Amino acid sequence: MRVGELAARTGVSVRALRYYEEQGLLSAERSPSGQRHYPESAVERVQLIQQLYAAGLPSRTIVELLPCVIEGRATPALLKRLEAEREHVDRRVSDLMHARDRLDSVINSATSNMRTGASCR
């Protein structure tokens, strides 16, 4: 499929797909005229890349992890890296939960203040 179709199917911009290719996250075959052509498996790969980005992983880390995730190849060093990334995600989840709890507290205070007419502090 061409780059525009991959972009449409994944909800990722053409510019982002080109960036993924530059970073070594995605590869495409080139037509004689230079157009990118991706296999069907590129859809799932782009979705995985997006999930890893959403988890806070930078592209250089994702490049290191892809052989394990895509091809099932792992080394002790890679497993250690995966565990470290998992801990990083856990910390982010904990931080987000704390922020949500604080926001709930603010919402509850604001709701109470609206009912009583007292000013928010």
Can you describe this structure in just a few lines?
This protein has 121 residues and is mainly alpha-helical. The chain contains five helices and two strands; from the N terminus they run H-H-E-E-H-H-H.
Describe this structure in words.
By secondary structure, the protein is mainly alpha-helical. 70% of the residues lie in helices and 3% in strands. It has 5 helices and 2 strands. It has helices at 3-10, 14-22, 41-54, 59-71, 76-116; strands at residues 29-30, 36-37. It has a two-stranded antiparallel ribbon. A hairpin with a 5-residue loop joins strand 1 (29-30) and strand 2 (36-37). The longest helix is centred in the C-terminal third of the chain and has 41 residues, at 76-116. The chain is elongated and about 70 Å long. The N and C termini lie far apart (56 Å). 11% of the residues are buried. The mean pLDDT is 90.
